[in-house]
Amino acid sequence: MQIVLVGPMGVGKSTVGRLLAERLDCAYRDTDDDIVAEQGRTIADIFVDEGEPAFRAVEKQAVQRALAEHDGVLALGGGSILDEDTRELLAGYRVVYLSMDVEEAVQRTGLNAARPLLAVNPRRQWRELMEARRHLYTEVADAVVATDGRTPEEVTQAVLDALELKSA
Ligand SMILES: Nc1ncnc2c1ncn2[C@@H]1O[C@H](COP(=O)(O)OP(=O)(O)O)[C@@H](O)[C@H]1O
Ligand SMILES: O=C(O)C1=C[C@@H](OP(=O)(O)O)[C@@H](O)[C@H](O)C1
Ligand SMILES: [Mg+2]
């Protein structure tokens, strides 16, 4: 069983990914965690020290490796779908896009310095980021699950329903 979660930062990929893996009694993996473990520093530090393109190159490798190795639920970093090869690779997997609107996004991520892409003027940055990415999330997804006003448990159930899966 392989399920891949995509969507913007703060939408709940990591939170829901863990719950989903529990419900399906399978393993959970997160490419951001893989990158932090491999590089021995935080995502924010990699962005500051080396810049976004260097981070994206490391991320691309991490996603390829995780897709090849992992059996279970895999949460990707929010920007991983910017890479065309990654999008092509995802065509072979069951992919769920977790979505939310701008107000929900600001509540969940606006004050969180660990997400460097939203550190200044989160509302505007969010809109710009989604304009650039929304079609890419949709393109790679087999199902879209809206998370607005839903608890992580409710989102997890909605993902199971969207994929027509039952708990283990
Ligand atoms: N459905 C939800 N409702 C409210 N808060 C949520 C929900 N899902 C996640 N969160 C919170 O939003 C923040 C970002 O969640 P996270 O799982 O790290 O997102 P992602 O991995 O997509 O960036 C965390 O503080 C988390 O507790
Ligand atoms: O959307 C993005 O470009 C990013 C999302 C983050 O992961 P989450 O989506 O898990 O927050 C992390 O990879 C990095 O801060 C960049
Ligand atoms: Mg995450």
Automatic annotation (TrEMBL):
It is found in: Cytoplasm. GO terms for molecular function: ATP binding; magnesium ion binding; shikimate kinase activity. Pathway: Metabolic intermediate biosynthesis; chorismate biosynthesis; chorismate from D-erythrose 4-phosphate and phosphoenolpyruvate: step 5/7. InterPro entries: P-loop_NTPase (IPR027417), Shikimate/glucono_kinase (IPR031322), Shikimate_kinase/TSH1 (IPR000623), Shikimate_kinase_CS (IPR023000). It comes from the Bacteria. Pfam families: SKI. Keywords: Amino-acid biosynthesis, Aromatic amino acid biosynthesis, ATP-binding, Cytoplasm, Kinase, Magnesium, Metal-binding, Nucleotide-binding, Transferase. Substrate binds at D32, R56, G78, R133. It catalyses: shikimate + ATP = 3-phosphoshikimate + ADP + H(+). ATP binds at G10, V11, G12, K13, S14, T15, R115, R150. One of its GO terms (biological process) is aromatic amino acid family biosynthetic process. It is an enzyme of class 2 (transferase). Binds 1 Mg(2+) ion per subunit. GO terms for cellular component: cytosol. Mg(2+) binds at S14. Its cofactor is Mg(2+). Its EC number is 2.7.1.71. Belongs to the shikimate kinase family. PANTHER family: SHIKIMATE KINASE, SHIKIMATE KINASE 1, CHLOROPLASTIC. Monomer. HAMAP family: Shikimate_kinase. Catalyzes the specific phosphorylation of the 3-hydroxyl group of shikimic acid using ATP as a cosubstrate. This is Shikimate kinase.
